[in-house]
Amino acid sequence: MVCAALVAAGCTTGHPSAVAAPTAPAARSAQATSSGGASAQPHSTSPAPGAATSGDSLFPNDGNGGYDVTHYGIRISYDPATKTLTGTDTITAVATQALSRFDLDLHALTVSSVTVSNVSATFSRVADKLVVAPKSPVADGAKFTVTIRYGGVPKPYDDPALGFEGFIPEPDGALAQGEPQVAASWFPVNDRPTDKATYDITITAPSTLAAISNGVLVSKRANGADTTWHWVESAPMASYLALVAIGNYRVTTSTHNGLPVVLAVADSLPRSVDTALAETPKVLDFLVSQFGAYPFDAVGGVVHNDGRIRFALENQTRPTYAPAFFMTPQDSTTVIAHELTHQWFGDSVSVGDWSDVWLNEGFATYAEWLWSEHEGRETPKEQFDDIYKSGGLPLDPPASPTEATVFGRSSYLRGAATLEALRIAVGDDTFWRIVRGWAQLHAGGNATTAEFVAYADQVSGRSLDTFLHAWLYERGKPTYPTRLG
Ligand code: ARG
Ligand code: ZN
After folding, report:
1. Which residues of the chain are under the pLDDT cut of 50?
2. Per-residue CA distances from 286 to 252, 282, 283, 370 (Å)
3. Are strands 129-133 and 110-116 parallel, antiparallel or unpaired?
4. Residue 416 φ/ψ, nearest 5 degrees
5. DSSP reduced 3-state for 151
6. Does ligand 1 lie within 6 Å of residue 162's CB atom?
7. Candidates 19, 159, 179: which one to mutate for ligand 1, based on the most atoms within 8 Å of Cβ?
8. What are the pLDDT digits (tens) for 53-63?
């Protein structure tokens, strides 16, 4: 199995790239910078609206400009009987321009009030945007808070290319997970991976259920028939990695080398799944031996029982797994290795643009090969040779995907093959210095493909541009790599 994290939709049976791409987002041509600059008069001191786009090359409509969120304080309560969510989201942000108004992303839910730094603000909804007009403008560089009260019945996304994701009602509770679209279906958010923030997530649900999220559980309090679970994610997190899993789960908490471990398995699944998921610390130890210190203060995993979800996801500190991955011990440890590798590559070091996603999926797939070798099966070199020689190497280059192919075979398999090609070219020592150094250099931040190529050049002391360009950007089969002299 070469691509554990996607069931059917992706690696093994070919990505559904034949499916029509979603219609091009209207905001594609809007001028926004990846640092969140305003579309109008970025250098003016007179207040202007923040951009209603992230400027991302693939998903420009998700995310906004003009401010930088530092923290989300999200309190939700969920009633599985009516499928209704009630929430308060308190956002702490810094203005990156003088703001007359700004946008947040919010899908389907209804807003009842908005305050900006405790002063009531006017707001409106335009498609999946919540447009907030503070009573007086926010000064450039000012720290401000936005408190939004909202609620309703969340609506998941069902995209032909991306699949079923978002805040999904379940028979016993709900599950919020997806990539890239999920966060805006359960809280007002600057929904772009470049605006990372810390999170406090407080979930109130019936006491018979568990309510799992990211990071460390700091309190769990019963009140009448409900229980409130308070989770803290203290490292910067991209919005799509925020997790909610409410339902009948068997929850196990422990510590591993001082690290809190929270494992949860849907109660409807067999006990063998608990045994398989309990391999998480062992797989983590192996990955630490490969990539260096683990970047977060908690770890774990959630196996849900929703067969409609066709992928596993690297939610920060607590990946989510579809039950199909847990049929055999080999599959389950492979997918655990994949999602835990994303904790370094994807979660700690996050994409600068969605077209950089091979930096996530290529490394995570490469780790499946490392795990395979560790388990006495094929080595990365053997995996690479199999793919290269069998015609299994995707011809599309990994670093220039479309919205329809971003989670396709190129990002995964050719991404991993690119890393093995690099390893063959520069040798083991240099390769591992690049991989470990990359994880360190951008820990807690964002990075692009161009930065990766420049870093590989720097560490190796040679120009790898032409070599990596062929693997990353050029259609067709690159020549078989040789050790550079
Ligand atoms: N990042 C996930 C993984 O670990 C895959 C997410 C795919 N997203 C989607 N909407 N299909 O492989
Ligand atoms: Zn992945």
Report:
1. 1-4, 7-42
2. 21, 7, 5, 9
3. unpaired
4. -65, -40
5. strand
6. yes
7. 179
8. 999 999 999 99
